[in-house]
Amino acid sequence: MKNYLNTSLPEQFQPLLDHIGRFVDLDMSEKELLLGRLSFKKVKKKEYPLSEGQICNYNYFVVKGCLRVYLITNSGLEQITQFGIENWWITDFDSFENQTSSAFFIQAVEESEVIAIDKNALENLYNEVPKVERYFRIILQKNFVAAQRRILWIHTISSEQRYRNFVEQFPAFVQRVPQYMLASYLGITLEFLSKIRAKKNL
Amino acid sequence: MKNYLNTSLPEQFQPLLDHIGRFVDLDMSEKELLLGRLSFKKVKKKEYPLSEGQICNYNYFVVKGCLRVYLITNSGLEQITQFGIENWWITDFDSFENQTSSAFFIQAVEESEVIAIDKNALENLYNEVPKVERYFRIILQKNFVAAQRRILWIHTISSEQRYRNFVEQFPAFVQRVPQYMLASYLGITLEFLSKIRAKKNL
DNA sequence: CAAAAAAATTAATCTAGTTTAAGAAATACT
DNA sequence: AGTATTTCTTAAACTAGATTAATTTTTTTG
After folding, report:
1. Which of A133, A154, A182, A189 to mutate to test the interface with B (most CBs of B within 10 A)?
2. Which of A57, A85, B29, B177 is the most exposed place for a label (fewest CB within 10 A)?
3. How many other C-beta atoms are found inside a 10 Å radius of the C-beta of residue A111?
């Protein structure tokens, strides 16, 4: 075992340890096991951690920056399904879990830093440190609740209101990504978003 | 410990054991621990295992029948967010996990049988039998993937196509629930669904 | 099995959001 | 700094799906 692990933990993984610490308590030996299986990566703007057709072998924890998940529809348009900013996990869980080829692209919207864990490493970790599996069970629960809420909103409030809610909930976000990506994520056209914005800023 | 546990397991819980068995292997003592914390319930048509304003203390595994999850919108309309049929878990995970009051109703669409597990029992079970937590981690992963796919479909295909896809994927289902519930779940009006159906049955 | 209640159909009118197209602003590149 | 590329805006014509309202069909219940 490398000596530094006994004294201090590599600081680049600290944001993830902090995030995990919100949900479960890992002791030092568990943290060491975890860190041994992580890798830290810088992703340049417009780079693709995942492209359509590949098997998604990694789950990415966003330390800094912003990633998006999207696919190209039959009609050739980009449809964004998720954004990942600080403290979010981003992957194609379907491809990741079942090792099937993905329909999605994961791309850095801006200069980003991520912590990546590959499928096998995570699988092993689940056995070695059950608390990690608990952590992901909780994260997935939250993801599921959020996705369900999104469906509910799509069905019950107008596109205009959904945009205004989004701006209210993630004001910083709206500055960071191009409007056309926001429109795609919200499921409306850029032109209609533009019309909404012209009306009045709130 | 009750004697029957050493010889045979109560058959009413078998469908759940079968389902769990698809994802993890429980040994006999783990199964006993699990069964000790479950309860079996019959739910009459139109009965409400959960009503708006209550804390959702149970997660329900549907053994037989069909439940729906819905809420009443500001404009007083029912919006269905989920159906649960055989082998599906149904709950308001937000309320269940955070013990907050729910915005939803869970109602039996037809005469149903469910296996219920309450929040504390499940919490304990996670500690006693980590494989149960793995099982739910996997279920939640699938739920999340399905919810994301639903969002993608809403954004990329027409209501008409979504209805046709649904009919193709769950043909039995379409016979079982009233059309107005299907319309609500798909996020369209009953009138429009009627128009689609009149066109031609595929 | 008749009456009431619940579910489904049809059609006319209306509207939130799309499409198409052209130009203006902002950003990146050499 | 100037040109090319990417992003955003505006406006007119159009459409998928909502709304309203009246009627029919099916299911439930006494």
Report:
1. A133
2. B29
3. 14
